[in-house]
Amino acid sequence: MSGDRDAFGVLATQSLPRLVGTAGLILGRLDLAEDAAQESLVRAWRDLPSLRDPDRFEAWLYRVLVRACQDEARRARRLSMVELAAELPSTVGDPVAAMAERDAIGAGLRRLSLDQRTVLVLRYYLDLSYEEMALALDVPVGTVKSRVSRALPAMRAALEALERSDARQGRPA
């Protein structure tokens, strides 16, 4: 916070992979995710003096990232970018099953709104608490809870629709 570039460089280096992964899940495209993560670090450096509580740096950084993702999404819409490809890590031991799971989750996320994707990624990918999510999104905790409660059924419906579509086309679910 005192302007030490080397200290911020260490923080940035440690945070970048997680920022890119999070942005990738929110935006659904690795190239946009990398841009959003980079932009969030630039903004974080610029706005670091406004951080009131250094213990909340991570939540504050995710708030900066979410805003950068929203900006990237708007920019992508204006440029009519179409194809989304989520880069999702998987904990499944079987590589084929992991790929199928990643593809299904990515396809389901792509069917959701940006706000729905954002809350699901923050909650289930980053494992943030509702309070941390509220800080990251700069909204009340009740708003976060309602967004998550609406996003989960939307994700379930998206996955079920994809399963039905695959079944009609004769692909294994």
Please supply descriptive tags for the structure shown above:
173 residues; mainly alpha; 7 helices
Oligomer: single chain
- Unreliable stretches, pLDDT < 50, 5 or more residues? 80-92
Q: How many domains make up the coordinates?
A: 1
The N- to C-terminal Cα distance equals 50 Å
SSE blueprint and pairings:
Layout: H1 5-27, H2 30-47, H3 57-78, H4 95-110, H5 114-125, H6 130-137, H7 141-168
Helix pairs in contact: 1-2, 1-3, 1-5, 2-3, 3-6, 4-7, 5-7, 6-7
Question: What would you note in describing this structure?
Answer:
This protein is an all-alpha fold. It has a single domain (5-168), classed as Winged helix-like DNA-binding domain superfamily/Winged helix DNA-binding domain (Arc Repressor Mutant, subunit A, Orthogonal Bundle). The protein is 73% helix and 0% strand. It contains seven helices and no strands. It has helices at residues 5-27, 30-47, 57-78, 95-110, 114-125, 130-137, 141-168. Helix 4 (95-110) crosses helix 7 (141-168). The longest helix has 28 residues, at 141-168. The N and C termini lie far apart (50 Å).
Briefly, what is this?
By secondary structure, the protein is an all-alpha fold. The chain contains seven helices and no strands.
